[in-house]
Specification:
about 425 residues, alpha+beta, elongated
């Protein structure tokens, strides 16, 4: 068990490290894709500037030879979809042509920012980028909430300061869409790891619970076996050491004690063997018509005789109330439930047994059961710890036996309880199963 826990912890640590490394790489990939997207935005700004300048030249009434050369060059460089190929080469040539004497009537170049902005957005759309906000402004212009945009600059002349400042709203969706081929398998793998980890942890917890239950069973069996063995041994030893053939009553008393203890041990062994699931699967019920009141009275008499504290049992069952059941096992069910009511109570206990409308109810005013323990009380070897761990004898099989036999009859059993107020078991008899 210890080795399994160590392997589990190491596996979880290795998984967390792998997830951390993969997450770090994904973040790096995201930033790389974001940088690439910003580069595309910058290229769109450059292309928009060239297309805006061509638009201004075409609208000018003074087309020079330089303009004709430039227009021819741009048409050669322009692709079928309208994009500018080799933007850096075009920009360099554009700078050279401008220096050769490209002039307008006012002897200066005046950018039409409305056209430039429109062409900038068109270029973004041609590159499958659709930001909600896209601005291209002079380099010296800075918007007030610049931190909420992705920002970059572009220059027309490589040897001068940037010409424009570009702003686009964050396009995280576009960036992530390029990464789905990696993100989706990553999410699937993480999901599988999470499921396996939770399953493994749950399994380890169950194994640990089983180990604790095994230890409890060993302790309880040792405790339960020790007392009858010691009593039988003491009685046999007394007969051997101080045997008096003439004292027949004394000899019979010792033999009776030995027989009682051996009978108790035999019953305990049989009870433990009866907990085998295979035995329950193959066990056949001897169904017969049972008078509930007579059976309860019989069990009550036996319970009162062996009780070691004052016990009051109220029986509220009408005469001639019959059901079809295995009388032996039904008696054992009632005996187990009443015996538990006596064990888990104070100095005295009041028990009420009712039968009505296809229900058998056994209620007590004992110490009760915490809500957190109720779902497990019918589990094999489970015992509710109260006060000292082994304050009450037993080995956690009684209620398991009760549940199995009730289900073999085709019935159901429910329990309600409050600490300090007592516990109520309700057996619901299925009429169809009876027939």
């Amino acid at each position: 068990m210890k080795r399994l826990r160590i392997i589990t912890v190491l596996s979880l640590v290795a998984t967390l490290i792998a997830v951390a490394v993969a997450t770090y790489n994904l973040v790096g990939l995201y930033h790389s894709e974001k940088a690439h997207t910003i580069d595309v935005v910058r290229e769109c700004g450059v292309n928009a500037d060239i297309l805006e300048m061509i638009s201004r030249m075409e609208s000018s009434d003074k087309a020079s030879q330089s303009f004709i050369r430039l227009n021819t060059f741009v048409e050669f460089a322009q692709q079928k979809d309208g994009r500018i190929a080799n933007a850096d080469t075009v920009n360099t040539s554009l700078g050279s042509l401008l220096r050769l004497g490209l002039e307008f009537r006012d002897n200066k170049l005046s950018t039409d920012y409305a056209v430039l902005d429109s062409m900038f957005k068109e270029e973004l759309h041609r590159h499958n980028l659709f930001p909600s906000v896209a601005l291209i402004l002079p380099y010296d212009s800075i918007v007030g909430d610049a931190h909420s945009y992705w920002t970059t600059t572009c220059r027309i002349h490589s040897n001068k300061k940037p010409t424009y400042r570009l702003y686009v709203s964050p396009m995280c969706g576009e960036v992530l869409s390029h990464m789905w081929g990696i993100i989706l398998p990553f999410i699937v793998v993480i999901g599988i790891f999470a499921f396996l980890s939770s399953y493994l942890i749950g399994t380890v917890k169950k194994l640990r619970t089983i180990e604790e239950m095994k230890d409890d069973l060993t302790h309880n069996l040792t405790h339960e076996l020790k007392t009858p063995v010691a009593v039988a041994y003491a009685a046999a030893d007394s007969m051997l050491r101080y045997y008096d053939q003439s004292d027949e009553s004394r000899n019979k008393r010792f033999i009776k004690i030995i027989m009682q203890r051996l009978s108790y041990l035999s019953g305990m062994i049989e009870h433990i063997l009866s907990m085998s699931m295979e035995r329950f699967k193959s066990m056949k019920l001897n169904r017969e018509t049972v008078d509930i009141k007579d059976l309860v009275n019989e069990v009550t008499t036996y319970i009162k005789l062996k009780a070691d504290k004052p016990v009051k049992i109220d029986i509220d069952i009408s005469d001639n109330l019959f059901i079809t059941a295995d009388s032996l096992h039904l008696g054992n069910i009632l005996s187990n439930l009443m015996d538990n009511a006596i064990k888990y109570s104070g100095d005295k206990v009041n028990i009420t047994v009712k039968a009505y409308d296809q229900h058998i109810v056994i209620a007590d005013d004992g110490i009760g059961i915490d809500k957190k323990n109720l779902p497990y009380i019918f589990d094999k070897f489970y015992r509710v710890v109260s006060g000292e761990r082994y304050e009450v004898g037993g080995y956690g099989l009684g209620l398991f036996y009760v549940k199995q036999v009730v289900e073999l009859h085709g019935w159901t059993i429910d329990v309600t309880s409050k600490p300090g107020e007592g516990t109520k078991f309700i057996i619901k008899i299925n009429e169809d199963e009876e027939r």
